[in-house]
Amino acid sequence: MRITIRLSCKEASRLISESMDRRLSFTERIALRLHVSVCDACSRFTRQLLFIRRALNALPDPDEPESR
Amino acid sequence: MRFALSRLRDRSAAEDAVQEALLAAIQGAERFTGQSSVRTWLVGILKHKIIDNLRKSSRARPSEPASDASVEDLEVFFGSDGHFVEPPGEWESPEKALEERRFFEALEHCLQGLPKNAASAFTLREMMGLGTDEICKELGISASNCWVLLYRARLSLRACLERTWFSGKARP
Is the pTM of this model over 0.80? Predict the structure, then answer.
């Protein structure tokens, strides 16, 4: 199996998204870390996706635990 | 009601879900154990109804088969060389956005703009807190399709937020 260690932004951003839904393989993690460490766009992309997740959790929601 | 609306993004569907939940609550009132507040219990029932509804609405659209989810039609976001067409810009003080009601309006607006299937998967994942295995089951799609749908939803949502909320800030 050929292991592609150099990712394009398209591949990297997909792995960034998938890392929020599944555990990446060891190779994927290494490749992604390498890419993000040199790519400003993808490191922003990562931060922004995490921010969006937090923002969605902060959406007005009646499900907040009430004081009993 | 707002809880249902923000997740279903369709007023009549949200009204239906709330009504069904209330009906189910009345029918199952003796099952309420008093261990949680009535409100938490009702919202729990409502969540089930919302999930049912999302599942149905995504299945009711055979014209948009979820199995078609591919990463090939992402050229809006990426050039043929795999680079971003428009690289993500720097978002200034996103923390502050969380304190602004208008930001959440922008967020809901962006959620409404998502393609239906991606929106269903994304809502189940991020707002109803389901794992991808459960989403696959609910929507009848494979795990990799599910990841692609979520990926597409995140790409669109991110771009939409940048356009509608974080634009005008410094770009590289």
Answer: no
At position B130, the amino acid (one-letter code) is: L
Contact residues, chain A, for B154 at CB < 8 Å? 17, 20, 49, 52
Dihedral pair phi/psi, residue A6, rounded to 5°: -95, 115
Measure the CA angle with vertex A31, ends B73 and A12; round to 5°: 25
Residue of B nearest to A61 (CA): B3
* C-alpha span between B148 and B120 (Å, rounded): 13
Mean pLDDT, 10 residues at a time, over chain B (172 residues)? 71 78 74 71 79 72 46 76 91 87 89 86 87 86 90 93 76 39
CB B128 within 8 A of CB B47: yes
Is the CB of residue A23 less than 8 Å away from at least one CB of chain B? no
**Which amino acid is located at B7 in the chain?**
R
ipTM: 0.83
Quote the crossing angle between the two packed helices B143-164 and A9-18, to the nearest 10°.
Answer: 110
Q: Where are the beta strands (DSSP E) in B39-146?
A: none
Q: How many helices (H) and strands (E) does chain B have?
A: 8, 0
* A9 in Cβ contact with B84 (< 8 Å): yes
Q: Determine contact, residues B108/B6, Cβ cutoff 8 Å.
A: yes
- Determine the residue of chain A that is closest to B97 in CA distance: A55
Pairwise CA distance, residues A59 & B127, whole Å: 9
Residue with tokens 């490191």: A43
Contact B54, B118 (CB under 8 A): no
